[in-house]
Amino acid sequence: MEDYSQKKLEIKGRLAEFKKRGESSNKEIFEELAFCILTANASAKMGLRSIEAIKPVLYNGSPEDISHHIKGKHRFWRIRPKFIFETREYLKEEFSFNLKEILKSSKDREDLRDFFAANKRIKGIGYKEASHFLRNIGFSGYAILDKHILNCLREFGVINGEKKPANKPSYLEIEKKMRRFSEEIGIDMDELDLLLWSRQTGEILK
User: Fold this and answer.
1) Fewest CB within 10 angstroms: 63, 155, 175, 199, which?
2) 128 an active-site residue?
3) pLDDT tens digits, residue range 84-102?
4) Which pTM value belongs to this model?
């Protein structure tokens, strides 16, 4: 794509930041998971504003504490705090909040994504946001099929009239098509994701 050469260095720099994030503390990794919970059916900017607002109560606050900090900054200020709280308490109770160990213990990349996407105790995210979370902490090869990426894939004829994937099989099918497209044009899958997102939004965020 024509704009890849112009954005290549910035894209690679952003991916390097993600990898470094994955080497940080359990609390910082959970912060990234909470950001992805906040971003689902919202926007990256709304997620960024909201995660900054709730940092003082993210690790120990009640749902009410989190709601208080997020009110006026997020459209789902009532329900998302409950998702974050319940996910946090599950990770504390079952895994002593050791997210780094969870990430290291899974040898299969699909099992790892399933742990976050299909686990009923991890609230508020499906395959898109599970992929988003893993990408944002340095894991590679997952497609983040939000509306921006889907629109671009339609623009380039990678997919036709496919709607937003409603389940795991439909998600994996579109992801497979995107991976094949990335191989055909010679742009790494993770770089392609950021490139397509920037074509729609004008920014390279996370």
Assistant:
1) 155
2) yes
3) 999 999 999 999 999 999 9
4) 0.94
